[in-house]
Amino acid sequence: MRSIEHWIDGVRTGGGPTLPVEDPATGRPVGEVALGRRAEVDAAVSAAARA
C-alpha cells in the first residue's frame, strides 16, 4: 500500500496521523496520506516565506 508524506523545505516529514485512501470503484484501500498538524503547517509557511 502506498503512503504519501509531506515534503517541506526538501525534507520528508511524517510520523503523524494519516488518512486512508480507497479506490472509488472497488472500495479497497490503496494507500494513505499524511495529515498536516500545526507543526507541519508552520514549517511549510516558514519555508514558503524563505523561498
Automatic annotation (TrEMBL):
InterPro entries: Ald_DH/histidinol_DH, Ald_DH_N. Keywords: Oxidoreductase. The keyword Oxidoreductase applies. Gene3D superfamilies: Aldehyde Dehydrogenase, Chain A, domain 1. GO terms for molecular function: oxidoreductase activity. Signal peptide: none annotated. The keyword Oxidoreductase applies. Residues 1-29 are annotated as: Disordered. This is Methylmalonate-semialdehyde dehydrogenase (CoA acylating). It comes from Actinomadura logoneensis.
